[in-house]
């Protein structure tokens, strides 16, 4: 295939699975693919601020080496020659891992994160790293070091977070596939807001070694998942197969029920979100038995998530960001004078973590709740896929998600329950775009299943993807 605008756009539309096959069949050279993505990102990034650092020169050199290997018949790996991007929080040898902190601006990783190592082993070429909120501690992507990322569908709106840079990057086709992490909707918010496929792995399925910050507390670790932000469900499945620590043996049955609980007034969603959820319900009812029962302890998931995130009063994050300084003082300095070296989103979140730090009694109740969720969840999720909204609306204006999830009025209890289910229970979750709002913003649903039943998510997800919107690349920032 020859170069030029048409060629570049066609490559940008390809998912990783398709591009890998075209490279193997010599229909696309690795140099062509890498060049298309490098040029596209160089053009779009000044408008969107999604890349924190690129390695275009190294990627081009690696592409040339890959093409020589192809000529010699030595190409190996499921992602051979495929250009990918990763969230800034994941170490890539020779690249910076800063967490968006000014005092870490020169911190260069000496070795790859385990996830990155596995992807490279399959032949992937790293193009660069994408923006996050400070220390991945907010669901909007902004920090003092790199600034705010913008949603390509409407730059006045949020990308979500904490994998927000990656979500926006994949939305414009900035790489074949991207990697993010999720401890509180951090893959799923960006997937929903930017109109891409997103997959969060279940508890302890994927190594977090080389992720910054490293999640130390066992309850927080159960909530963390690492996975793909992608152009297809097939890519999310492929990436999970590559990075998961242990793959189940043998074929598994895809027979399952689908549960779609009614929307309750306590956890409202907007009209357009509700309309698309109802369309998905109607479509699925022709193929699956539909249940309506809610997951165990659904009314407590938001509170459980908040308590787990506050289990140490935010001290582990405060040590990394504040070095003994008071978050109250840093927040006041930023609000009054704009002179703190940490973003106000982080200092306010740390204030909240101190205020919500669970007491001894709450810790005991929390342990009991987690045990009950695990026991009852095993029966609830047996050969069952739960379908929920991701958020009550498409991507809101910058700052709105922050105000809704970090308000002193505890509005997170209203707005985060749908996301909190998969985190609190440590379950895998898949986001699939299904439609758009009247002003063109993507709307998605999320699918949740038991650990070990990822195949059900991918099976039902592909079914939905085929019949609804799926991934559609945003072309607003293509080169003229």
Task: Describe the protein.
It contains 19 helices and 11 strands. The chain is 42% helix and 12% strand. Strands 1-3-2-4-6-5-10-11-9-7-8 form an 11-stranded mixed β-sheet, with helices on both faces. The two termini are 21 Å apart. It has helices at 5-13, 16-24, 30-48, 56-71, 114-121, 164-171, 188-194, 218-223, 233-243, 271-285, 301-309, 315-322, 327-337, 344-355, 360-380, 400-405, 412-415, 417-425, 454-467, and strands at 51-54, 83-87, 125-130, 177-182, 197-200, 225-230, 257-259, 290-291, 384-389, 429-436, 442-448. The protein has 480 residues and is of the alpha/beta class. Mean pLDDT is 96; it is low at 1-9. It has one domain: Amidase signature (AS) enzymes (Alpha-Beta Complex). A hairpin with a 5-residue loop joins strand 10 and strand 11 (442-448). Helix 13 packs antiparallel against helix 14 (344-355). It is globular, with a radius of gyration of 21 Å.
Instruction: Output the CATH class name.
Output: Alpha Beta
Name given to the CATH homologous superfamily: Amidase signature (AS) domain
- SS field, number of helical segments: 19
CATH topology: Amidase signature (AS) enzymes
Low-pLDDT parts are: 1-9
Number of strands: 11
Q: What would you call the structural class? A: alpha/beta
Summed over residues and divided by their number, the pLDDT gives a mean of 96
Helix percentage = 40-55%
- Counted up, domains total 1
């Amino acid at each position: 295939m020859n170069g030029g605008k048409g060629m570049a756009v066609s490559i940008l539309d390809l998912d990783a699975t398709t591009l890998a096959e075209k490279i193997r069949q010599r229909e696309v050279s690795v140099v062509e693919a890498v060049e298309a993505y490098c040029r596209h990102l160089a053009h779009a990034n000044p408008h969107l601020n999604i890349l924190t650092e690129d390695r275009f020169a190294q990627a081009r050199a690696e592409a040339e080496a890959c093409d020589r290997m192809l000529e010699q018949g030595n190409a190996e790996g499921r992602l051979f020659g495929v250009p990918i991007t990763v969230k800034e929080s994941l170490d890539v040898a020779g690249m910076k891992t800063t967490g968006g902190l000014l005092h870490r601006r020169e911190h260069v990783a000496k070795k790859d994160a385990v996830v990155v190592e596995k992807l490279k082993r399959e032949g992937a070429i790293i193009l660069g790293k994408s923006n996050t909120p400070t220390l991945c501690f907010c669901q909007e992507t902004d920090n003092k070091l790199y600034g705010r990322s913008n949603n390509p569908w409407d730059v006045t709106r949020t990308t979500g977070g904490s994998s927000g840079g990656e979500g926006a990057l994949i939305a414009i086709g900035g790489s074949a596939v991207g990697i993010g992490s999720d401890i509180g909707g951090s893959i799923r918010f960006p997937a929903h807001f930017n109109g891409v496929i997103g997959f969060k792995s279940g508890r302890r399925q994927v190594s977090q070694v080389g992720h910054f910050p490293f999640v130390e507390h066992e309850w927080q670790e159960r909530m963390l998942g690492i996975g793909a932000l992608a152009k297809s469900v097939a890519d999310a499945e492929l990436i999970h197969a590559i990075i998961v620590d242990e793959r189940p043996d043998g074929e598994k049955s895809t027979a399952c029920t689908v549960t779609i609980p009614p929307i309750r007034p306590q956890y409202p969603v907007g009209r357009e979100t509700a309309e698309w959820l109802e369309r998905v319900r109607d479509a699925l009812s022709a193929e699956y038995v539909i249940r309506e029962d809610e997951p165990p302890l659904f009314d407590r998931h938001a509170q459980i998530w908040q308590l787990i995130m506050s289990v140490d009063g935010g001290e582990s994050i405060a040590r990394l960001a504040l070095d003994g300084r008071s978050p109250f003082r840093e927040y006041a300095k930023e609000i009054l004078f704009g002179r703190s070296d940490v973003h106000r989103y982080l200092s306010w979140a740390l204030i909240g973590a101190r205020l919500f730090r669970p007491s001894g009694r709450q810790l005991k109740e929390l342990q009991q709740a987690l045990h009950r969720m695990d026991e009852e969840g095993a029966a609830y999720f047996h050969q069952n896929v739960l379908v929920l909204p991701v958020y009550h609306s498409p991507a809101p204006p910058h700052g709105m998600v922050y105000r809704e999830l970090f308000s002193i009025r505890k509005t997170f209890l209203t707005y985060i329950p749908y996301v909190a289910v998969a985190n609190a229970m440590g379950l895998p979750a898949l986001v699939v775009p299904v439609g758009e709002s009247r002003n063109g913003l993507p709307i998605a649903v999320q699918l949740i299943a038991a650990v070990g039943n990822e195949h059900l998510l991918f099976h039902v997800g592909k079914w939905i993807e085929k019949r609804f919107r799926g991934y559609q690349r945003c072309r607003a920032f293509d080169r003229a």
